[in-house]
Specification:
Elements: H1 15-29, H2 79-86, E1 92-96, E2 99-100, E3 104-106, E4 115-116, H3 118-131, E5 137-141, H4 147-152, E6 158-159, E7 173-182, E8 184-189, E9 205-209, H5 213-220, E10 226-231, H6 234-242, E11 248-252, H7 253-262, E12 266-269, E13 277-284, H8 288-303, H9 306-314, H10 316-319
Parallel strand pairs: 1-5, 1-6, 9-10, 9-11
Antiparallel strand pairs: 2-3, 3-4, 6-13, 7-13, 8-11, 8-12
Helix pairs in contact: 1-6, 3-8
């Protein structure tokens, strides 16, 4: 997904005050979670202490030395899906973000504050496929650095949270085919002399989310920048930037575009992302039947116009016209 620098069309919350509100919400609603059978709150989010234009390219990981293709689609139930269906609470438990504008967020201007966005739409599609009900889903807000542990521990059935496929992560979790193309890009104040991911960040203080692709890329090559500032949630980097504690943020260009819309004093630096990545749904290793079922959902979602409808609703205004989702590649 190539994110265009012009993001004024997206209307966000704006400013440090709104970011502070978002972080306050995050502090009250993020993980850590009880048993999988517990109930969430009224809108399906388990609270802390509570119960319960796009390029049509193959969905590939960063490197070519691992088998990054996903399993072929299937409508059949298997042991993982049967376990999900047979537990006490008949809902899919999905790890999501609640602070990524247009992806998974709560609009403070709307009554009820239900989660909404592109990733939330996809999670509901998967719930409808498995349970026949788009509302049969419990959303659990997970920090960036807890996405894989939440899957491995069984606290969630899957993560739909702007999560990039790469070979390292494939050692720990299984992925669906890619559903969105993006890449890493710098976000910095408009008045900054930073021009992009290159020598202009030398000596600058850069923020990234712990456990993110951004952190990995900075470790590979950082142009002698200070990369010691890492945070649990990517949104926290924007707050650090607004407070003047860091000079720039590295994150997915699709997320950065939404953050630039939230704060008109910052912008994406560089004409294009400096990596090419794909978001995919992450699931527990060995849950082949669930992976195949999710791939069936994605296959239908691409073909029946659902993906495009969701893109047009949430992302088109800021990212421009899309040529569609990444084309899938299957290994069997």
């Amino acid at each position: 997904m190539r994110t265009r620098r012009g993001t004024a069309g997206l209307r966000g919350w704006g400013g440090v005050g709104a970011m502070g509100l978002a972080c306050a919400l995050a502090g009250s609603l993020v993980l850590v979670l009880p048993d999988r059978g517990d109930k969430g709150d009224d809108d399906g989010v388990v609270t802390q202490g509570g119960r319960g234009s796009t390029v049509a390219a193959p969905a590939r990981a960063d490197a070519d030395d691992c088998n990054d293709r996903s399993l072929s689609p299937s409508p059949k139930d298997g042991p993982t899906i049967e376990q999900i269906k047979n537990r006490k609470v008949k809902k899919l438990i999905v790890g999501v973000d609640q602070n990524s504008y247009r992806w998974g967020y709560r609009d403070p201007n709307k009554k009820g504050g239900e989660l909404e966005g592109f990733d939330i739409d996809l999670a509901r599609e998967i719930a409808e496929e498995i349970f026949g009900d788009r509302d049969a889903v419990v959303f659990r807000a997970i920090p960036t650095n807890q996405r894989i542990p939440a899957i491995q521990s069984g606290q969630v059935d899957m993560v739909v949270r702007t999560m990039t496929v790469n070979c390292e992560r494939l050692k720990d979790v299984d992925f669906s085919t890619g559903y969105f193309e993006t890449g890493q890009q710098l976000l910095a104040p408009k008045k900054s002399d930073i021009t992009g991911y290159g020598p202009s960040i030398t000596g600058k203080k850069i923020c990234s989310a712990s456990g993110s692709i951004a952190e990995e890329e900075l470790k590979k090559k950082n142009y002698s920048a200070d990369i010691t500032t890492t945070v649990p949630n990517q949104l926290d980097c924007l707050v650090r930037l607004q407070l003047g504690e860091v000079d720039a943020v590295v994150t997915d260009s699709a997320l950065a575009a939404g953050q630039a819309a939230q704060d008109p004093t910052v912008e994406l630096k560089g004409d294009e992302p400096f990596t090419t990545e794909h978001y995919a749904v992450a699931m527990k290793k060995g849950s082949d039947d669930l992976v195949r079922r999710v791939n069936k959902v994605l296959d239908d979602y691409r073909k029946d116009g659902g993906w495009q409808k969701s893109y047009d609703k949430w992302l088109k205004e800021g990212l421009g016209k899309s040529s569609g989702p990444p084309a899938p590649e299957y290994r069997d």
